[in-house]
Amino acid sequence: MNARSRRLMRPAALAGVLALGLTACGSGDDSGSGGGDAAPVDTAAALEKGGEITVWAWEPTLEQVVADFEEKYPNVTVNLENVGTSNDQYTALQNAIAAGDGVPDVAQIEYFAVPQFAISEALADLGPLGADGLDGTFSTGPWGSVHSGDGVYGLPMDSGPMALFYNEEVFAEHGVEVPTTWDEYLEAARTIHEKDPKAYIANDIGDAGFTTSMIWQAGGQPYQVDGTDVTIDLAGDEGTTTFTEVWQQLVDEDLLAPVGSWSDEWYQGLGNGTIASLTIGAWMPANLESGVPQGKGKWRVAEMPQWEAGQHATSENGGSSLAVPAASENAELAYAFTEYATTGEGASTRVENGAFPATTADLESEEFRGAESEYFGGQKINEVLADSAANVVEGWQYLPFQVYANSIFNDTVGQAYVSGTTLTDGLAAWQEQSATYGNGQGFTVNK
Which segment of the chain is annotated as a signal peptide (predicted)? Predict the structure, then answer.
């Protein structure tokens, strides 16, 4: 799932998401869920028996996956429904769970939101259904993101390892070398804006997903979760400080275009060269091709700049899983579809239709890595992007109420882009408000 699809959810709409099953969770164990005690199942038998399942998802490549799946397994009917994107779907899913009616058998859930649903026991543990045998199938970042405690609460559908997408024509015009470190990136930002005051190296008006991804790449671990015990330390976390020290300079010197991503102005800037680069997830190429056709032949992809020269650390930005709600009455068949859609034939179909894979087999294949992109001037961009997927820093955790935390980002950290406050002050406010919410939802939050 890419960032374009994300919308902020009002805090009031989020309040019930955690309350559903939180009181049933032990403070040190979040592994119990609807599927957690299920015996191993024979998915082949479930497919032969057939039946009907409902899938809630907004990702367009699933349409072909569903058609292929139904053709291969004629006894199965899959009802693919788009009930909203990202947070809109999460609200609908929570409402259905609370009402005990209309819960889908499979739901698309972004990685940052998986913990929130897992700890409330809204999702089945897919381990006993077959996911325990999938170690090594997916790249490190997505596979780690679908785990909570000892459970597996989704199968990775795609991934978003970060890379630097840049307009080679603009860089060459201003004599800027592709930055390999964030210090070089800062200097490149200064050069571009000095030579053309209308041009910026990037845009940024505050984005929670981007900020956490940057902290992740810097080795930060500001969130620590053990069941319902949560620690939030954005103030003392070294990775967070590393990020803010550089990014605050970009903000203070007005080196970032004050333009929101996915807006008309943003697309125009990417097309006319006034926004010269993006540090973003590997799902971005299809968006550039469709949204910035005038950039064809001008754009290239490079490794994400590093916090220390010589390193090759990356992080994830975006991406979704397919999960089976605990309330599904057809969990075996739901899992069979989920596995098909995320591994093997289904994964290959989605890659062929433009999705960026989370499966190691696809990421390592010569055909995938060697594909030349006409839009990117014939560059084999998948070599860069697949290497990025392999270099994702391990150990990152999201909050079990990250959906809510992200919804208040612009009211806290985002103020640093429009007022006199600093990123550090904004992060402190974000930490405080997130902790208050978490404690109110039954967590024990340390900070």
Answer: 1-26
